[in-house]
Amino acid sequence: MATSRYLRTTSCVFLICRPCRKDFHMMNQAPRHVRELMTQWLTAVAVSEQPTAKDVLKDKTQLNLMRGLGMLASTFGTLQKNSFSILMYHRLAPNKRELTAPTINVTPAQFEQQLTGLLENGFQFWSLTQAIQHRRQNQDIPDKVLVVTFDDAFECVYRYGVPIMRKLGVPATIFTNTAFIDQDMAMPFDLWGMKNANKAPSSWYRAMSTSQLIDLCSDPLFEVGAHTHTHRDFRNRNTAFKKDLFMNLQVLKDDFGIEKPSFAFPYGIPELGFVTWDMIDIARDLGVSCALSTSPRVIQPHTDAFGWGRFHVFPWDTALTIRARVQGWYEWLPYLKNIRHGSANILGIPQTSPLCQLELSQGCNDERIDDVLTWLDDQKVNHVSQSVLQAQEIII
């Protein structure tokens, strides 16, 4: 098989089918450059393990700003009437001294403190479905309503977060990448998990199992939503996006009996082209109930659930800083960013994706690609041929 053809398919070698646990354990044992290359093929978004000095300064500035705005929110209340907000989490894992802090992570203790603090400040938590139904029926939503969502269905969310939410009575939606269910490997878009798979507890980086998702589906407090099958970078690849999301929805229907689930875009940043109106139309046509981005926005009255944004919750967040955002005291910053990016509409969602260059191209990285393929062959990994054939039906 030609190298360029492998470039288009090997990123799904370990994703499309459900191979044996031995294969995924072997992938976690792969040389670091092999795992990083596989990750780069899946996405053009690299997660830096060590923040730069500029990142640290930016975080401190933002934290101080959020604290100040939180005090204003607690004094003067909401700036947005008849609106609500959606919170977005990913991983819930404790910190481990010998490891670098997990990325996209809030510790279970912080998570419980955030929810408890919001409840004590008069906020109430609704399911995403309840919020969607109220909007479709043009019913008013109380000012202090929040929706909790989790992207990627990390197993640690089930282990640490679900008991907390059951104790507090907080509903949540878990957006699931169905290619990784029941696998022992770190999900390849999770660079921290790929690098620490041999050191960290497996629940910190792998996806939930079928039995865990079935347990959530049986509990009215939780909903399982769609997040594409493989969590790939689908910019400028609408046909591939449609096929991958279709497979995601098919697994949710066949394995869990879920029809017309909610949907959140992987990566979800409209300004970078991960969400476009063309892609939203595709998702709508496939029958999902909503299509969420990661734009930090309060949900305004009479807005369509296709294009709603969410507020990412950070490790430094408290109930006070979350309150500043969900009550509209942060809204001016996204608008300034849209002006800077030249967005043509108030939501900042472009009609089509801007052209994006992947770090790896077909023309100049044959030697590096061959390194990966040689390693796969040397290890005699099973299911490669089958997975490549199945990947060809998805990757365009």
What characteristics describe this protein?
about 400 residues; alpha/beta; 15 helices; disordered N terminus; disordered C terminus
Please give a quick description of this structure.
This protein has 396 residues and is α/β, with parallel strands linked by helices. The protein is built from 15 helices and 6 strands. Strand 2 (124-126), helix 6 (128-136) and strand 3 (145-151) form a beta-alpha-beta unit.
The value of Rg in angstroms is 21 Å
Quote the beta fraction: 5-15%
Helical proportion, percent range? 40-55%
- SSE order in H/E notation? HHHHEHEHEHEHHEHHEHHHH
Structural class: alpha/beta
Q: Can you put this structure into words, describing what you see?
A:
The chain has 396 residues and is of the alpha/beta class. The chain is built from 15 helices and 6 strands. The radius of gyration is 21 Å and the shape is globular.
